[in-house]
Write a structure and sequence with these properties.
alpha/beta, Rossmann fold, five-stranded parallel beta sheet, 5 strands, 47% helix, 16% strand, globular
């Protein structure tokens, strides 16, 4: 079962609305466990436990709490997030995308479209959950293959 974290980067109403939409999209994928949490309430371990992370914010830059959390993630082992699916939702510019790309995980994006921001957020939530499920499923086969080879 994929576990998707919707990481709320700031406390603006616009961000909270987008986070709700992302969570709704992720919950639409069967068996997906979804948790919505503020950046300041999280640590690296909470992110490691997730198969998917959607970082939601509506500001130009990153909040101090999000920047600190990403710094802590970057200082860990290079493989910590290799199989984690990430997305960035709502941010102006590429800063959030660049930061999550540096974690070395699997980044899902969405091409430009005429969807409303809410619809786009739901779509990204669904994509994160689906890709996280694919990765989890593939890794379970890889583990089973290694187990039988011994």
């Amino acid at each position: 079962m994929p576990k998707v974290l919707v990481l709320v980067a700031d406390d603006s109403d616009a961000t909270k609305l987008l986070a709700t939409c992302v969570a709704e999209g992720a919950r639409a994928v069967r068996f997906t466990e979804v948790d919505v949490r503020a950046a300041e309430s999280l640590d690296v371990e909470a992110l490691r436990e997730c198969t998917g992370v959607a970082i939601v914010g509506t500001t130009q830059g990153l909040s101090l709490s999000l920047a600190k959390l990403l710094d802590a993630c970057e200082s860990g082992a290079a493989s910590d997030f290799a199989n984690t699916v990430f997305a960035s939702v709502g941010f102006d510019g590429d800063l959030a995308f660049e930061r999550i790309a540096r974690l070395g995980g699997i980044v899902v994006t969405e091409r430009e479209s005429d969807l409303t921001p809410d619809e786009r957020a739901k779509h990204v939530g669904r994509r994160v959950a689906k890709v996280a499920e694919w990765v989890r499923h593939a890794l379970s086969h890889e583990h089973a293959h290694h187990h039988h080879a011994h």
